[in-house]
């Protein structure tokens, strides 16, 4: 999809990602959506910039002091969001550091898609109780990754400003889990139904 075809305003930025998912996303089955041509293997910088601007516009009045994401697919859109908001980006690491391990917040996260668990870590000196953090992630399915990020940030007694998601699988329980805990979720793309070769969005 040629981005030059679009006259981009604030309302179009979210629609652009929706069109991109429909045009270039590949549904392998009801659980797996490949977006490796524009999000997590090959990354389109201009698309990421527009995604970041949309998140920044949506959360601009929330008093955000930092943006956080889990490595690695969320880094590009989260960085663009942080740049638009003019705040630092925290990258939550999936493996513990062998050097900075004395003042580290850690938690275990289970990946629904991959069926594996990993240790999520954050250096304690990079966050404080004064921080109000926006979490950005590429996918929301069962909500395990976002819940892990929340748990980690709360260990530092920081607060959560909201959760920004590029692509939400709305037929899975992630949003309900997060909203039941009182967290605000904003998804740029919400998938109503997915199967092999089929992607149906919520308007």
- Taken from the alpha-carbon principal axes, the silhouette is globular
Reported for the largest beta sheet, the result is: 6 strands, mixed
Number of strands: 10
Strand order of the largest sheet: 4-3-7-8-9-10
- Which structural category fits the helices and strands? alpha/beta
Low-confidence stretches are: none
Strand content: 25-35%
Helix/strand order: HEEHHEHEEEEHEHEE
Global mean pLDDT: 91
Helix content: 25-40%
Q: What Rg do the Cα atoms give? A: 16 Å
- Number of helical runs? 6
Ends distance: 20 Å
Topology of helices and strands:
Blueprint lengths: L9 H15 L1 E2 L5 E2 L1 H5 L4 H14 L7 E5 L4 H11 L3 E4 L11 E8 L4 E8 L8 E9 L3 H12 L3 E11 L4 H7 L4 E11 L2 E4 L2
Parallel strand pairs: 3-4, 3-7, 7-8, 8-9
Antiparallel strand pairs: 1-2, 5-6, 9-10
Helix pairs in contact: 1-3, 3-4
